[in-house]
Design brief:
The protein is 47% helix and 23% strand. It is an alpha+beta fold.
Length: 501
Amino acid sequence: MFIKSIRARLIVAFCFGALLVIILAVNFTYSQVKKVLYSELDNFLRDKLTYQQIAAAQTEDRVVFRLSEPLLNAMQNPEGKDFFQFRYLNGREIFRSSGLPEDIVLPSVGLSDVDSSKGYDDLLSIESYKIEGDVNSQLIVKSVPIRCMGIVFKPVSIDSSDGELQSFEPLKVHLVVAHNCLEIEGVLSNLRARLLQVGVIVSMAVLLITALIVKISVKPVGLISKRISKLKIGDIDECIDLKDVPLELIPIIDRLNELLQRVAKAINQERQFTSNAAHELRNPLAALRSQVEVAMSSAVTSDDEYDTLYNIFNLQQHMERIVASLLLLARLDSGSQSVTLEEFPLAMQLRKSWKQFFDKASEKNLIIKWEIVESDISIKSDLVLIGILLSNLFENAVSYTPSGGNVIISSVVNEDAVRITVKNTNPGIQDVEVSELMRRFGRKNPNFTSNLGHSGIGFSICRRIVYDHLNGQIDVNVNEDWFKVMITFPVTVVLGNHYHV
């Protein structure tokens, strides 16, 4: 899975790197210790080969051993960890240690000059019986790891018992010595377990230290992110402070500040143009309305002329609504629209705002369903802004709902917030088209609202009111059946004449 967080990426990378180093260090330490132990064991086996080789001698046609009784007893100790075996080159045994079972033959190592006096690892399968009860016994086969080494040599010849030197052909003897490695393997096994324990502890420590280091290292990035999230887009004075910014991020922040200045300048120019255009159009439109009203009231006007004047009058009304909306949007953008808190019944305001759309909804045979709060519940908010907000929502629902469709108006009051939902039959809007509709002057397509008298700025006004003045949120959800607009904003809720806490 792709990790998007820089902090998580760094922690994962450091942890994997540290874990890899620890694993390599554990394996290297274990292999080095094992190498040293077995190197010392090989030296010990070479010494045994040397003094046992010296102890062997040839007299006449046989091999004898010149060992003192204490040393011989030590070599013959069945509980010892060392084994040896003397053999002729044909494999016939000459002598072996008593600790080596009779059916066990040590490996044939050291027969050539290449592997002479070199250590080899092998396993001996030693059988023993475990007594169970008085008569029953169980055969147990135990594999014993050994380290063995061999050599081929000619024993020195010694005089016979009568003091005369005998002339016999020198014999070659194959000597193999071995050491029981159970104790060494136990030490190595214990060492591996300890190294793994240390590795786990070190890994946990590395994880904690890495997380702390990464947290401290990326803290400036988090602070920059918070600064960016708090920026008010469109304010010419807003920029990201370069204090405590890492050197690597300074070019990015400089470029972002430059972009913010350009965006703010463009937004302010758009707002200024919108405001100026709306102000300049208001007076000519008022004059045009007066001229049309005078012409319509004239007695000499024919029916055809009256119809033409009536269409002009409707277009003038539409243009006045656009201008009024642009002026309101300019005030909302600039923040000059004042907010006056007053107490009013929510249900009454919903029905009052709906009155101006009742006739149009009846003409389209719309089915209206109300699911609103009780009439005795009041809220404390800006009555003018709420009225503008509701009017835009109702106008959008009535205008775009197909004839015979459904409109559901609902409201829910919590302890400190109000949620108003206007849901209507979907006129054919897809989910991917919502973002375009929410944009200023946004329409589904150029002809979608051409005959409905809409300018495409109603949602922009709603968004400005909800986000900038009511500190709320607006959500638009679309499916095959419904187009739903849900607005949530914090308010002081009043029950009767008492504040609800």
